[in-house]
Write a structure and sequence with these properties.
Length: 272
């Protein structure tokens, strides 16, 4: 008499990783067929760096009379994440309207796995954007002055910020299906969080009414932390700036938690 051995059941974690990899791979293949999206994400920060650092840099005084391009590069790099919010949101909204998410929900794939897979694919695009914008920054005169580990840590902080912004885009795409609304809201977020920050101007040069907003802007905390790791010039004052690492961890964690919970709940109930 022979004993039949039941097939080994795939572990939940391994199964989830396969699902995420499958969804991310599908998304990346679609993105590869539409390179214009990556060009748009890259050109925004490059134009900002050229306009502020190269064309206007000679007329702007950076903290400590330092090089203005080195001062604004961290802020320009964050544009990769902010500029990517709208394209991510539009892509999610189009997938929702086309019924793709309905088909995925009919498959034995976890709800979170679908969104995480999409977020990783868009994050990879953001990392490519970081690489290209960094090369542009080096050409324009930006130089890091920290040790290699600190420089890598600075890019790690930038990568974490971009991933958080990807989830902001996913949430917007699930909340609103109207593309005009998405583009308006996404553009407004990018402009407000970018220019109401210390990314391009020292807080002591701002009006008194705007200064507290800029100092507590999460983008300012990320920029300050990255500048410190890279050894680039900055004017640090106030709790948020002197404790930028803490503010970065708390703010990005809050963004990921809020956008993740809202996105997963919205994905469960949304239909095309």
């Amino acid at each position: 008499m022979t004993t039949q051995v039941a097939p080994a059941r795939e572990r939940p974690l391994a199964s989830a990783m396969i699902e995420i990899e499958t969804v991310a791979g599908r998304r990346l293949r679609r993105l590869r067929r539409a390179p214009g999206r990556l060009v748009g994400i890259i050109m925004n920060p490059i134009i900002v760096l050229v306009a502020f650092g190269y064309l206007l840099g000679g007329s702007v005084v950076a903290p400590g009379n330092s090089d203005y391009t080195e001062y604004i590069f961290a802020g320009g790099l964050m544009q990769v994440g902010l500029a990517g919010i709208t394209p991510t949101a539009v892509a999610v909204a189009l997938d929702l309207r086309s019924g793709l998410f309905d088909r995925l929900r009919s498959l034995p794939i976890s709800r979170a796995g679908v969104l995480i897979g999409n977020s990783i694919a868009d994050w990879v695009m953001g990392l490519l954007g970081i690489a290209v914008v960094t090369v542009a920054g080096l050409v324009l005169g930006w130089r890091p002055h920290g040790d290699p580990l600190s420089v890598l840590a600075g890019f790690g902080v930038a990568a974490a910020f971009i991933y958080a912004m990807v989830w902001v885009g996913i949430m917007l795409g699930l909340l609103w299906r109207n593309l005009e609304t998405i583009e308006s809201v996404g553009g407004l977020i990018a402009v407000l969080f970018s220019f109401l920050s210390t990314g391009f101007i020292s807080p002591d040069k701002m009006p008194a009414l705007v200064r507290p907003i800029a100092e507590w802007n999460p983008v300012s905390a990320v920029v300050t932390a990255v500048r410190e790791l890279w050894g680039n010039p900055q004017n640090v004052s106030g709790f948020a700036a002197t404790h930028s690492a803490l503010v970065v961890v708390l703010s990005l964690s809050a963004v990921l938690l809020v956008t993740g919970v809202i996105s997963i709940r919205r994905y469960r109930t949304s239909t095309h």
